[in-house]
Amino acid sequence: MTSMKNSSISDCCYSEYDVVDDITTTFAKLRTILSEEAITRKKLNELFIKQKEEAEAAVRKAQEHLAFVNDEQANMRDIIRQESEVAKEEFNRTTPVQLDVSAEGEERELMEKKKKGVEIEEEIKQMEAKAREDAEQLAREQARQVAEEIERQRLEDERCQEDDWDRLRAPSTSDNGCYKQSTPSSHADQRLGESQYQEQETAQEEARSERAYHPYQDPRPDSRSSEDRDGLRRDTVISSRFSMSTTAASMHPPPKTLRKQSPVEPTPEPEEPTRQLTDAEMYKMAKLREEILAMVSPTKKQQQLPVMHTPPAHNPFRF
């Protein structure tokens, strides 16, 4: 009996030290994820600054082109004004005889000059409008590219964080021989599994509603709420498992190796990650590490375990 007690204590200590190792490994993974997130954030900031500088350079180039067009327009207006002044001076110097002789030719020339000036002004206005549209389109294109790049990097960062979180939440096989169920690697697989599970539950509910009523099976759908039906179903399953375990235990006593092992706890269903830990929370967890180690480490009270008074054949909690 003493050797059996010592072996159970050593197994308990070994499993608790495994818990400490898992906590240390989780802390290391969290630190790695935080460092990777900082590097990604730094790269995003550098990319955003680079795209912003390129957009500003494009805007400056468009503004310079617009200023050049304005200067050209001012020069053309000066030329037209000078030509009109020269024409007026020539008109004033001419005699009435010369005016009568060449009136039609000068009038035609003036009309052509005015028409040419109007065409030049329209062409300048078109060039100015085109330059303004090109500058605005270039600025919009640069801004759209920057926004798309930032959105793509953000989605990639979120996907990497979700994959890292799923990888951290995925349990592994420990050295004591207990197998732990692994979680899906992405939320898309998790949603697919949930949808399949819901379809199976719906099919089972329909089959239960069609078959005959049995008092020891799931009740018919009635006016009870979903929580009450879930509670009745859970109580029914627990009672059936309890009766089956006691019957099997009374018929077949377990070997000694199974008596030493602790009952396997059910693996909880994976939950979606709520949020990422901050630096302050990581620092607080590092400060609480000693208290956690003290909580999971074996104590004198755990080493002095009482002898099991209930026979193994009548223990309802034995598997």
Low-confidence stretches: 173-188, 300-306
Sketch the topology as an H/E string, one letter per element: HHHHHHHH
Give a count of the beta strands, DSSP E runs of length 2 or more: 0
> How would the global form be characterised?
elongated
- The whole-number mean of residue pLDDT values reads 70
Secondary structure class reads mainly alpha
Give the assembly state of these chains.
single chain
DSSP summary: helix tally: 8
> How much of the residues is beta strand, in percent?
under 5%
Largest sheet geometry: none
Rounded radius of gyration (Å): 43 Å
What level of helicity do the residues show?
Answer: over 70%
Note the gap between the termini.
Answer: 21 Å
3D structure, described in words:
It is elongated and about 135 Å long. With 319 residues, it is mainly alpha-helical. The chain contains 8 helices and no strands. 0% of the residues are buried. The chain has a domain at 41-168.
Summarize the topology.
Blueprint: H1 2-93, H2 96-169, H3 187-210, H4 226-251, H5 256-260, H6 279-287, H7 289-296, H8 300-303
Keywords:
single chain; mainly alpha; coiled coil
Outline:
The chain has 319 residues and is mainly alpha-helical. It has helices at 2-93, 96-169, 187-210, 226-251, 256-260, 279-287, 289-296, 300-303. It has eight helices and no strands.
